Automatic annotation (TrEMBL):
This is Uncharacterized protein. Residues 17-28 have a biased composition (Polar residues). Residues 1-14 have a biased composition (Basic and acidic residues). Residues 1-33, 107-131 are annotated as: Disordered.
């Protein structure tokens, strides 16, 4: 089950992704993206209102313990300003009991549309609660 985490944990996870606090040749997804010549974002923003609307859509269409799985993706080529940029999308899931939910018990519900309309900043702003 998901849970709230301390802000410093979130900051550390963001730094681990971007490689901003790692020595020169350390490997991180963010450094790999930059060394391949891409300027990319590592954050996506959704309004609470749009997320609530999407969650309502999922709840209205899936009765068997609806959930959300978050996937990392890439827009690919020839899509305008988002050429080769990374993104996330939300995929609805169903199944598993409410108690002790295990990712293995949840299956993607391919009858319900996924969601991807967030916006990201380029260059992205790091997560830093002390800034």
């Amino acid at each position: 089950m998901g849970q709230r985490i301390p802000k410093d944990d979130a900051k550390r996870m963001c730094e681990n992704w971007t490689g901003s606090k790692q020595p020169g040749n350390s490997k991180s997804p963010g450094k790999a993206i930059r060394s391949a010549g891409f300027e990319d974002t590592y954050e996506t923003w959704f309004s609470v209102d749009e997320l609530e609307k999407y969650l309502k859509y999922v709840k209205d269409n899936i009765k068997d313990n609806p959930g959300i799985r978050i996937y990392f993706g890439n827009y690919g080529k020839n899509v305008g300003p988002a050429n080769n940029c990374c993104t996330i999308f939300l995929a609805p899931t169903r199944g598993a009991s409410e108690e002790g939910v295990d990712a293995i018990e949840n299956v993607n519900d391919y009858d319900t549309d996924p969601y991807n309309s967030g916006t990201g900043r380029i260059p992205p702003a790091p997560y830093d609660p002390n800034a």
